[in-house]
């Protein structure tokens, strides 16, 4: 009997496999003298014809062969038949005859099917049939064929030239697309003054002198290729309003693009430039409502027959708060409610439709969020479009009651922003995994109706635009954070070939990691509103291996990798690589190096080092490299196709200027200078037993390394030599020549320890005591030194190593104290335990180390009571070992997210050993100073005091209080942590 059952199962599997195989057919687009054509119905939507023509253009760009778009049947034996249910007579005939089944997706939103049908029409042997549930579904289906041929959505906007081949054959698997995850998906063209508008006016569309119908046609084609359906048009005063060009709305309708407007543009209006004070009076609803309502009526009347999303509510002019008579929240809420009531009345009267059938959005942005939180009554059918805080962190999302609203919810998200504390308008510096995390969270809380990305000028936001819209199309492909890396790998392979995809992805991830630590546009430590001059960097140059130099070297590695990759990219993709990877990475690298070298210039100048001049030169060279690359982008790339699209200094802010530099001019005779890690000033070689002649203590458990800078004091040439006094002291270089005239007046020497050769300390069960390693009992320290010799003079630098043989640390795996602190990357827990509802999960690709850990699911119940925290909440445990004891500060660095709604915060709880959990809250309010600091460094740091009751082994415990809290790094400070921008590298026992 068992054999019969197994045989039946095997037979069933074979039948299923055979059925699957039978649904895959090879279809020839062009091959030698054979080519197909596209048959559409002239009565179908215009976007179907547009999509068909785009497809034929793609075929020509690959094969140099033209295929035709026909509205009448030809004698071709093989065709592509494309159309919309109810809009294509041949498609409808196939449905009625049962040759294609559309029951799965008929009358649904933006779905399509692709399949091969034999003998579909008399005289046609075979047809590749693309059928859409609506006009956009058909267009997406046709353009899916372009994707199957390997054509990038960025073939025009980033010059991703298709690979040439004579034959185009595609393997067609009968399939029906899923419903889009998000109903309305699109972009907001914003802050266009610095690129898109200038490029359109001066280069692409000079006949209009503006972003007009020709430019929008190319934008809309891109949106169709990216399976988007919505535009918020450009709205700065540099651009004439969208509706001032009558053809704009016609082109949008031809491409089936839904037009909406931003939070500051109610009822599809653009008050920045459409409101004329001389004839229309003051833009105040409390004193001039009739004039404003008349303007609303005019706009609704001219857009009533087109697909649109009407933004309800009102803000003031130029993205400012609404002006009302009384300066109190209740009055503002009441007036805003009246505005919305009047707007819906206008919609009803001008469209003759019930307002609850017309797409509307309410965007609680900035002060409007406060009004909404204060009880503003919003009709249930209006979509709530939540916003981020302009820096990538969503301010609020729908609570369980709001999730029941008929209008649903959406998100307006930024990857470009003009405003305080600082703009980021030049490069795409928003971490894509952060964007995934926030949009995934929004999707969890049912924000599925409208997703709009503020992408500035489109360029150089190409990758994040595609990621954003791909998520909106099918969020099921993005369940885990690793999906972003997989997506980028696929994107890189499509754009540049599989050979380089892994290296390009690694390059972009590292570029994103560095930008996450500090965006390039924030590197001057300046702010806006008001604009301030460059400030003092928080990066240390003399602690923790020198943060400035570490960042310089990280970016230099990116520059070299980018240049090597560019040289290896196929010729037909070099221009695309330049736009999508090369310019953004080189731009970020050189803007960083421009400032980082200027910081080194000023720091070394204070020590009167001649190398300060060299660092100033490198800073200026970095600035000139940005100039050179920007000029190439605009004037040479694609023979000037993109001239005026790229501006290297939006708003001419201080961060984009050449930094002020110090200059050292001395006639002193050249002599050897020394500067040590851990000390701000150079070694005073004229003072015996100077306090600054000893490197920080080397710790055998963390395998420490430190630097010594050798440099020329004065001007000229210096010979130097270094001799360790013990065989276990290792130097990266032991002698050399420094010469200021060659620009090589400085050298960094790295000191490491060969621990196999260091004498062991005493064999002890207990740890040494003392809050400073300098106070560690002598039995645990081994002292020696390095003699630096030059021109007959010897300077000795002291070396102390901490190398005890502690039984307690034999075989120990965990973190250890080093220089008075314990540093931990949050993802490197020793143990984790799941809670009743939640668990901890690592997200890859964000945070200071490219990994963070968060509590999921995001809709789990917060746990606040101490006894429940310990019994119900998921916990992370970190084993650590200290050589000191007493009160310590546990510093927690979290991703600065916001609570999704009332009742949920951004909290965790902390305890060392068996102490009671102490709750830590990372939430900020409004645009506070704490919030500004958090978004400038993508980190929220909070500290709690705990007791380490003895030297030895301990456990740090971190519990979830609120789901969604995201931890990046932890620093347990026993009194030794010095000032630094980032926490020191983790002190994990090696």
From TrEMBL:
Keyword Nucleotidyltransferase (UniProt): no
GO MF, one example: hydrolase activity
Gylcosyl hydrolase 115 C-terminal domain segment(s): 814-985
InterPro entries assigned: GH115 (IPR031924), GH115_C (IPR041437), GH115_sf (IPR042301), Hex-like_dom2 (IPR029018)
Domain of life: Bacteria
Keyword entries, A-Z: Hydrolase
PANTHER family linked to this entry: GYLCOSYL HYDROLASE 115 C-TERMINAL DOMAIN-CONTAINING PROTEIN, PTHR37842
Protein name, as recorded: Glycosyl hydrolase 115 family protein
Taxonomic source organism: Formosa undariae
Lineage, broadest ranks: Bacteria, Pseudomonadati, Bacteroidota, Flavobacteriia, Flavobacteriales
